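hiii, so i know i said id send this last week but things got crazy w the move. better late than never?? heres the sequnce for the chain we talked about at the cafe, plus the structure i predicted for it. fair warning i was half asleep when i ran it
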Amino acid sequence: DKIAVVQHRTMRRGTIARITMLAGVARALLSRGRPRVARPARQLRSSAPLRMAASTLEGLRNVAIVAHVDHGKTTLVDALLQESNVFRDNEEVQERVMDSNDQERERGITILAKNAAIDYKGVKVNLVDTPGHADFGGEVERILNMVDGVLLVVDSVEGPKPQTRFVLKKALELGLKAVLVVNKIDRPQARPDYVVDKAFDLFVELDATDEQTDFDIVYASALNGQAGTEPDALKDDMTAILDAIVDSIPAPEVDADAPAQLLVANIDFDDFKGKLGIGRVKQGKLKAGDAGTFGAMKGPDDDCRAIKINDLFVYDNLGRKAVDEASAGEIVMFSGVSDIQIGETVTEKADPQPLPCLEVEEPTVSMSFAVNKSPLAGREGDKLTSRVIRDRLMKELDRNVALQVEPQDSGDAFTVSGRGPLHLTVLIETMRREGFELEIGPPEVIIKTGDDGKKQEPYDAVEVQVPDEYASNVVDLLNRRKGEMQDMGKTDVGDYTYVKYLLPTRGSIGLRTNLLSATRGTAVIDSNFDSYRAFAGDIEARDKGSLLAFEDGEATSHGLLGAQDRGQLFATPKTAVYKDMVVGVHQRPGDLRVNVCKQKQLTNMRSATKGIVEGLSPPLELTLDSAVEYISEEELVEVTPESIRMAKQRGWNDKKKGKK
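okay and structure toks below
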């Protein structure tokens, strides 16, 4: 049997090689009859005149680790760091050491791209860990400008997912070489041959070159620290992946004698050094403490302003190391430029050669950030005014390039646009923990006008995997949200059905909660922005109303006991409430006011049923994400450092009467 498996793999690889060769021949024959036109994606990223590289840095590799969310990128980085002896033998190392942000640990996802550097066989490998969630795709887009290749990590069961397609597409457009890492190979349902075939199909579908489709494959179990070139012959170390990086990822081709050039791809902050710019030296050399040589400019149309580089750092393991000089090919961090921005080029003033500005995809969802004006405002936070909120949002724009902020006419509110609800709720949670109080409006998609003058809205590619018994529920729910089915079928493993839809982003807001309810928590949902398409028309609203507080006060057990017959509650005894605050979900359409502050009348008569205690049902858990998904167009979320509340917008009843 083992011989048969080996023969099958050999035949499959031979078939792939022949397909690649025939594709190359076909391209050559087609190009004979007409002049070959270079694609925009294959153009050089430098605006400088074309020049031959003076040397190749064989002792350096710059590589980004990209994947769909939860396919094991950060765990893989942990294993590579362990393999490179970054940690002492007696050092206590926490899991997912690169996820240093509090929210990253709580949510279990990577939000910010981070750098590390390891040494392997005399070669320095700069590793960049990137986010896997589609809402943080802006981080991936700018980070790919710093590297020469990517490790494409794919789950051994799930195979390529929507975000896998997105990150691979961006990497291939930049001409980067990829190494495929089939991770979690130790899973009982692992199907490595299927995953490799699907990955190859994805490369071909994304119009990869012949060199890019000839990618190396490594099988790994990052959690166990194992890797190998065959799925059934893993070694108890990660040398197979490190060897693939050194052998397959090209070394930087640099011209150290050309005028200096560095595109700022990221921003960091230090309590002592201040603002830090991060980027890769494209050509030339940067020197620390130089006050007269270098300047910064944003694109060829900008003026070159003089800057001074105080300190210069390169990455060393999980930290940084100060250096006096950095040559082309190295990823560096520098201080001394307090107004440096992502997308600017650091170049020489005497011969400025700016690189093209970074371009990221436009935001698709917007939300309103306003000053908190509720009756409970100012009790928990200390950052309350519109000026403080505005300054914080402007500071966020420094490093969050996929974000856009516009002031509203009222003067105390801002429209903040991002790549999805999660992109914005992470920002809201960060501001909340910093002491801000905000009123957040419902998510709204950004509508555009097409070339034909008609409205267009963003669509998401949604993939749902669910047990067969719930497949009809999923199809019904997605159809009611104006989804267009693209594919449906049985999975190769287990009694599961997968469905693929194109769904208006308006319909995907709040979809996760409803799908999990309809499938009793068994659905696995993945989505990614697809494109702008024709406006889909009205989408059915929430089918249940809200329970609203009747008056200001404090919720009591007696009041909540009477209200819970009307629906499910968010409030608990002793919760401070105010009029028109959302305290629960009504069991029917339409809103209903309930008196949750009602006091029980006390008498001196002894009750025959005194020993019988009526219990309150457990309240629904209210998180920031669930609150943003729940609210309708006439509701808002009140966010404070200690509380999350929902309420009707001021004047909502008057607007309702006006519509009638």
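btw Confidence is low (pLDDT under 50) at residues 1-10, 25-53. thought thatd interest u
miss u guys!!
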